[in-house]
Every structure is written in C-alpha cells, then in structure tokens.
Amino acid sequence: MRDVAIIGIGETEFGELWNKSFREIGIEAGFKAIEDAGITSQQIDALYIGNMSAGKFIEQEHVAPLVADYSGLADMHLPAVRVEAAGASGGVALATGYMAVASGMYNIVIVGGAEKMTDVGDTQALQILSATADQEWESVFGATFPSLYAMMARRHMHVYGTTRENLAAVAVKNHRNGSLNPNAQYRREISMEMVLNAPPVATPLGMFDCAPLSDGGAAVVLCPMDRAKKFTDTPIQILGSGIATDTLALHNRRDICTMDATVIAGKRALHQAKRTPKDVKVAEVHDNFTIAEIMAVEDLRFFEKGKGGAATEEGLTALNGEVSVNTSGGLKARGQPVGATGVAQAIEIVRQLRGEADKRQVDDATTGLIHNVGGTGATAVVHILERGD
Amino acid sequence: MRDVAIIGIGETEFGELWNKSFREIGIEAGFKAIEDAGITSQQIDALYIGNMSAGKFIEQEHVAPLVADYSGLADMHLPAVRVEAAGASGGVALATGYMAVASGMYNIVIVGGAEKMTDVGDTQALQILSATADQEWESVFGATFPSLYAMMARRHMHVYGTTRENLAAVAVKNHRNGSLNPNAQYRREISMEMVLNAPPVATPLGMFDCAPLSDGGAAVVLCPMDRAKKFTDTPIQILGSGIATDTLALHNRRDICTMDATVIAGKRALHQAKRTPKDVKVAEVHDNFTIAEIMAVEDLRFFEKGKGGAATEEGLTALNGEVSVNTSGGLKARGQPVGATGVAQAIEIVRQLRGEADKRQVDDATTGLIHNVGGTGATAVVHILERGD
Do B78 and A103 touch (CB under 8 A)? Predict the structure, then answer.
C-alpha cells in the first residue's frame, strides 16, 4: 500500500446557516479544499462523502452524486460514494478515501463531510440523532442521545470519582480554544460557574456539556505521498488509520466507562503509524458531550483510566499542555455538523501540523491524532498525522 | 493491487417478511455466506454493508455495527462501514469491499446488503424511494420514482420507436426466469396480456413494469485470489469494478434515453477486466422498471442504442439467448430489497459461473456482468466476474 498525504483543506463556517442549503455547503467546502491543494477539478479521481442523515434532515438520500453534480463535476462521472457511521461518518469517509489512494486505485481523492441539521426543529433533530443508538432496545423506550451519555457520566463519576467540575472543565477549555478559532460556531469563553449553573439536559449533563446542532461542511484532498510535493510544501501524511466497532446498545458493553471501539481503533492506528500515545502532541477527540472527551483521553491512553477528568481540570489537555486536545474548540465550540465533524477534525490537525493555527498554534505540533465517534461508541475511527516533509 | 475472489454467498428469501426484523435478515444472509465460504467468523477482517434508508424504513441509522453486533462479532470490534448510493448501495458496497481486499488492507471481507421496506405503508415507501431522486428539483414538485422512469420510457418510445410490447417483454421474461428461481419473490409466469392490461402506475408503465417493494438480505465473502483455493474449488474472480455518477435530476442529463453513468461504469469495469460486451454471457442488470432493463442492455453495449426493446421481445436476452439477462428474475421477479439488490445480483452471477443455477443455468456461463443503479441513474456500478480456476 502507498503512503498517503493530505494536500488541501477547506471548510464552511459552522453554525445555523439558514441562508445556505446542503448543496451549497458541500460545494463551498469542496471548492476551498481544491483551491488550497492547487489542483484542478479535472485531476480528481473520486469522491468520498461522509453524511449521517440527509435523508431525514433534508429528505435527500444519494448525496454523493449530488455533491459531485453541484460542484460542476457531473460531466466527469466520477466515482462518488457516501459512507455513514452516525457521528463518525466523516472519519469513516477519510478512512475509505485513504484506502482508495493507498490501494493505488485512485490518485487524487476528495473526502468531504456535510450536514444540514437546523432545517428541522430541535425535537426532531434529537430524534434523528437518537436513531444512531439502538432503536429496538434504547431509542424506542425513550432513551435519548444525551441521556445515554448521561448514564456513562454517572457511572464514570461513581466508579472513578470524576466530578461535575471535571466535566465542566472540558467545556470551559474547549470554549477557550474556540474563542481563538475564527471558524468556530461559538467564539466566546465561558466560566466554570456558567457550565455548572446551566439548565440540565440529562443530569449530570447540562446545556454547556452538550455540543450544539450545526450546519456545515468540510473537505480534504488526498494524494499519494510521492506526488504530494508537486502540490504543496507542507504535505501532511496519514501514518495510521483505524476503524473499530462495538455493540449499538450500551447494556451489551463490557463497561460503559470505556469505549472499546476507541481503544481498539486507537491501537490499530498507532500500531500502523508505529507511534505511541506519548508521541501525540495535538489531538482532536470526539467531545459531543463533556464526558465523551474525558473517556476519549483515557481510552486513547493519554491518561490512565479514571484520571481523564482530573487531568483536564488540571490543564494537562489545554493548549500547550501535556497533549493539546481540541484546539479547534472541538465539537463543543467549533460546532458539530455531524457528517462534517470527522473531516473538520482532520482540517484542524492539518493546520496545527502545517503551523497555520495562528493564536491556537501548539508549539511542538509534530504528531497529531484525530478521534471520531459514531452514536454512543458503536463506531470509532482514529487517524495519526505527521508532516511529510 | 491484488486479484480478488468471491468465495461465499448467502441470501434470505425476498418478499414481505413480516416475521423477520432488519437485524434477523442481515444475520441470516451473513451466516449463510460464511457457511458457504467455509470460513470461521474469527477470520473476518471487515464488513461493508449496503443499505439505502434504514433510517427512514426502521428509524435505525448506523446499521453496519448493528449487523456486526447481531452476528455475534461485537467482541472482534471489526471495521464495519455502511455505504449508501440509493438502489446501488449493494453494488457500491461490493466495489468498496473489493477495494479493501485488492489494496491489501484486509484479507477476508464480508460484503452485505439489506433492506426492510414493508414495515411502512406503500405511500411512505414511495416517498422514501423518491428521496433518491433530486429532492429540490424533482421530488418536491411531486415527481415520483415511477413517473421519472415513465418519462424515460416515453422519450425512448418517441425517439427509437420502442413499443409497449417491448417493455412488457422484459417483465414476461423476468417472471419466466423467476419461476425457475426458488429464492425469487414472484415465482409465477405472467403473459404479455397480463402486463399490457395491468393497472397503470405512471403511463406507459403499468403494475407489471415495476419491481416490487421487498424485504431481504444478501451477503458475499471476498478474499485475495491467491488464497481462494484454500476455501473453495470454484472461486469467482472479480476482474473489473467500475463506479460512475451523473446528475441527480433528469433535466440536467445530456439524454434521458441513456444512463451515462451506466455507459461509463460499464466501460471502466470492462476495461479493467480486459473484456468486451461480446464476452459477457450472463448478466444481472438493474430492472427496477422494464424501461430500465432496455436502457441497460443498450448502455452496456449488448445491443445498439434503440434496439434493446426489440432484442428483448425477440428473445435475445432470454435464458441461453445471445446474452442471458436477469436469470434470477431480476429486481422484477426476484424482488428488490434495495440495499440488498446489488449483492443479490452478484450471488446470481456467482451461481451461474459455478454452474449451480439449476433449472436456469446458462450453458456457456464463462463471463458474467453485474449492473446496479442508484436513483434514476445518478449512480451506476458494474462488476465483471469469471471463474478463477
């Protein structure tokens, strides 16, 4: 298999984009990535699109040819494939695009992700999100997405002594990082008090413990490493790519304080990359809820199981801490247009490794990690990136 | 890239399976394929699942880990990826699984497809199917899936003199083939008169011009060609795999009598396989409507453009005709559980090439072709198969 590089990145703003349609979002992200890569659209060999629920949010399935079409590429009749893995759709698209280039099947591949979530009401959006958990054993009985994460939080607090303040520290940190990111949906700092006093969503999780609903798109351009230098001085190599799955239903898991899919996907990616968690200086992890980031930094072995909350409150995951986590603001502050999330995470790590992250630049950003989760952890995808020059 | 073989096949019955859930269907197909391949589940490296709209039919997204979970594979935390390309979801899953093995990333891969369509009413099912056409330019104005195909039929009749009887001949032939297939949803022959006198759905298409709504699942097992002989005496090699896309909306097409995506996907697959249309002895093509099969046999270059209807009525596509088309009964008679369709097509061609098609066995089944379409032709996938021994 060939080495693969990311040579271009592009994203829309994330937020409630009521003046932009799904197709406009997809095109904008793609065009920006193409421009950033300095390729022409004639050079593109294939598209991989991550999208969770366009069928339900905008009544449109079959969105991969749609994106190709509206990007003016219809005449090329490109292979265009949509993948779906709930919140991990973007990460799985990246893994599939990576495989397409690594295999030698295609040379230049666009990996895009997009979601348009705010055209439906909040209640309907919540129902749509809950369809990524186990419909027959969870959602049908009224278990919502936040309530399932709340159960993990309760259990984590019970078993490891994780505190409400530990959870809140995730939100405070990610909003601080988001305030330094001009593309973030929320660019205001929040205080610990604000998080602790916010209205409850599913106790112990309050409003500021939950990532928002967002519209947005993100795209990256991949090519073989040995051709990357033709396009850019700072190709970013994908050193490792791991996907793992688990049961949909929480009650079937070995332990709901650990996402085994994250553990395994992380090991697979790090093993392929020949790196250890200690090598990782900057990471975008899946913080759809504050408890999710705490579990992620443990399951990715940045910290011992049970110590992730304290480590966060101590600032070890802050900008230029031991490992800088969610410098973009994460899903919490950068926003969470579901299908775009995994690709947007890649973009942030590319910016960090290129040294283009401006006010939120990590000093020694040598090795980066991306961690994208679907549902309540039934899918996890991890990628390891480094500068390839 | 490595050569890839299909070493196992498995399918459920197709029909209105009110006593089986989506997850039961997925498991049954997978287990049968695993048993047919003679592998153990411990040998599986990854799953690729084709599914169109479980999010809408059964309110369940994220179905790839679900299938892994309910197949008892959760402990292996396998990479499991759902792909969606409307009616071509199964074919795109096969193409992606092919790439996964060809790349060297995985050795043993299950490609599955499943759909559970009859848990919703017919009107809702029609709306769900119509979401695979262009929502903003077609479906929202009331254009249904059959009406879009009816427009193609009208135009084809106008330009090429294709007759109502030509269309009907597709249904008659495919029901005859279906009567020989114990797994088909409809196993009764129908007469030309029955087709012509059936109630109209979208004129000129009547009830017997349309494939049914179905529940069902299908799965195949892939492995590298050089290991295939360990598992089976009759490995079936995938010689070519082509995906192509086109505009979602019909009005943006160059010509609605041709599916350019089919033309291009066919050329890509045949080019890779180093075969010509003349080499193909048996083909499963996407006959969701009778006009679709006529266009397919032209666009795949079995017959000149405009001659597909007459060729069908003359029997050139009948069992042991010039090219035996839809020996399974096709979508029309075998049934059309959307996400499973592309995989079920592969299974029929594998049976033919193995010489296991019993009463519908084609005499000189040397080279087989699979053609799977999404929406009204915005995605097409073509695979070329031959015996690998």
Answer: no
pLDDT in tens, A199-232: 999 999 999 999 999 999 999 999 999 999 999 9
Of A10, A21, A9, A84, nearest to A215 (Cα)? Answer: A21
**CA of A163 to nearest chain B CA: how many angstroms apart?**
30
**Within-domain flag for A155:** yes
- Is pTM beyond 0.80? Reply is yes
Domain stop point among B160, B194, B228: B228
Question: What is the ipTM metric for this complex?
Answer: 0.96
Contact flag A105-B84 (C-beta cutoff 8 Å):
no
pLDDT in tens, A257-312: 999 999 999 999 999 999 999 999 999 999 999 999 999 999 999 999 999 999 99
Q: In this structure, are B313 and B354 located in the same domain?
A: yes
Enclosing domain of residue B353: 122-211+239-387
Are A100 and B99 a contacting pair at CB < 8 A? yes
Helices (H), B220-317: 225-228, 260-273, 290-299, 308-313
Q: Does residue B234 form part of some domain?
A: no
Does B378 sit within 8 Å of A245, measured CB to CB? no
Average of per-residue pLDDT values in chain A:
96
B72 and B141 housed in the same domain: no
Number of domains composing chain A: 2
CA distance B291 to B154: 9
The shortest CB-CB distance from B96 to any of A81, A249, A378 is to A81
CA neighbor of A357 nearest in space, from A343, A347, A342: A347
A-chain CB neighbours of B101 within 8 Å are: none
Distance from CA of B272 to the nearest CA of A (A): 11
Residue B233 within a domain: no
Domain edge (last residue) among B201, B228, B255:
B228
- Same domain? For A92 and A173 the reply is no
**pLDDT tier at B122 (50, 70, 90 boundaries)?**
confident
Q: Do residue A379 and residue B245 have CB atoms under 8 angstroms apart? A: no
CATH of the domain at B60: 3.40.47.10
* Confidence class for position B290, pLDDT limits 50, 70, 90: very high
A107 backbone dihedrals φ, ψ, rounded to 5° = -100, -50
In Å, how far is B54's CA from the nearest CA of chain A? 10
Asked, for residue B307, whether it belongs to a domain, the answer is: yes
DSSP string for B155-181: HHHHHH---HHHHHHHHHHHHHHHTT-
